[in-house]
Amino acid sequence: MKVEEYVSYDGLGLAELVKAKKVSPEELVNLAISQIDKCNPSLNAVIHTIYDRAKTSAKDNIEGPFAGVPMLLKDFSQELKGEPISGGSRALRTYRSTSDSEYVTRLRKSGFLFLGQTNVPELAILAYTEPVEYGPTRNPWNRDHTPGGSSGGSGAAVASGMVPIAGANDGGGSIRIPAAYCGLFGLKPTRGRTPVGPQNGRFLHGAAVEHVLTRTVRDSAAVLDELNGFEKGAAFTVLPFDESYLQTMERPLDKKRKIAFSIKSPIGTEVNAACIEAVMKTVHFLESSGFHVEDVDAPVDGKKVAKGFLTTYFAEISASIARMEEVLGRKASYRDMEPQTWLMGLMGKEITAQEFVLSMREWDIAAYAMESFHEDYDFYITPTTAFTPARIGEHELKRVEKLALQITGKMGKAGFLKKMGLVDQMVEDAFKRVPFTQLANLTGQPAMSVPLHVTEDGLPVGVQFMAARGREDLLLQMASFLEKSDLWESVPKKCMI
């Protein structure tokens, strides 16, 4: 098999070739390595490789639905025993995992061969992937633009054909945003559907879940079949789904399913014309296909959702820095990490227990409202992002902002930044481009980004679908229906060259 053939297959397609003995796992590993070595110098998607380990594993008697298929893991939470996992931070660059994560354990049993880890923003906290320690990851569609974050390295790796499937997780949009920016399919499962242990019983208080980025819907469904299931010690459980997602996605979608959509930013900010066009094009297609679609906004206060998300997010980062100190064997300082990360950690220290609990209450209010909403509407459609991918470096802090953060870092106080209005401005800037994805993280619902539009200058645009908790089956049926339509925008060959 040639590399050109390798990149044309999805994960299940490669597994079928292995099963038919038309290609060996060793060959697939070598083809993946060839594609990584070819594309990574210009994309910087992979920051750590374990080629020898993958080659050794390829010689074993591999079983499972993905037997022999090469895969990359994300450099955050997806721990592989003995290998580094830095979370994009220079402070953790020498850290080695002491055990496999449950996510890795389940995927190994399904037959995947791990080739390395993909780039992330520091501590996976941003919607773009430009860590100081490893440098920016670039979008295969246009290398001047970001692939998004925090699973940006995985998005670039899959879109460029390095591997058909890469590990991802989503605490505020980190699967769906790279999917939208890289023209991929990205499903965020229901809270509790996929494993997060053994290091965590809950991941970002339940906002974050583990899954993958793929080029095809069936690969995502088949991986979900492998990850789905009870996990001991997990803080959250979900109604069991005892069928196969892979088989269920092929069932005809009931045209009586009701659909709501909105093109308004939940925080009242601008939405780019291309992102609106992507949704409206999808709405018109669904209407012409016989579905009932209504223009209805979600019954939640978007600004309260954003504030509730950030309050708990800051607290999580502060706690992550405290845990980092166990690895460092000393107190962490502003010199150990990027200014924005340190600032968010300081903000976490400013949050009181009362503020934290009240923020979590907003999560529950939103969850109840959305479950009631989905009693009337099976799907809720929005843009995945409010803008197309930013240019590399566009998010870089201004000189005055860097100076203010340096001063804050040395002082160890964040209170005066509130008075300056700098924090509020940074928050608005952070959500301006991606105001749609956080809701599903707080409510625990499943949501997906589907590649249904490309701008005139050749950048992909995603459309987000949300469903009630536990209804990944509905989302996968809708995705499968759309994948067969002319709307679906496949990754072009130029991205894999």
From TrEMBL:
> A Pfam family matched by this chain, by name?
Amidase
| Keywords, in A-Z order | Hydrolase
- Into which EC class is this enzyme placed? hydrolase
Please list every transmembrane segment annotated in the UniProt record, as residue ranges. none
Ranges where the Amidase domain occurs: 27-476
Q: Name one GO molecular function term.
A: amidase activity
Keyword Hydrolase recorded: yes
Coiled-coil regions in this chain?
A: none
E.C. number(s) listed in UniProt? 3.5.1.4
> Hydrolase: is it a keyword of this entry?
yes
What family is this protein classified in?
A: Belongs to the amidase family.
- Annotated protein name in UniProt: Amidase
